[in-house]
Design goal:
alpha/beta, three-stranded parallel sheet, 3 strands
Length: about 90
Amino acid sequence: MRALLEDGGTGVVVCDVGGLGPPGLAVVDLLARLELTARRAGGRIRLRDADPALHALLGLVGLRFQVEGQVEEREPALGVEEAVETGDPAV
């Protein structure tokens, strides 16, 4: 993982998980270890071809991974506020 991050230069390693079969705790453990190693090396992993059941299982155990084809969830930029039209009721 460290070698891939150093050679790639982008800080992201794409893991094709389409052929892993039915998701289970062994897959969750493997992905968690890969993500931990990647973060220690200053990078992240991104999942390709993730089964919806795997995505649900990862969410259930509290692990969030960026998946190809999905926009990464980020905090809004500081100092950016939504525009409010006059006459809109306060929420």
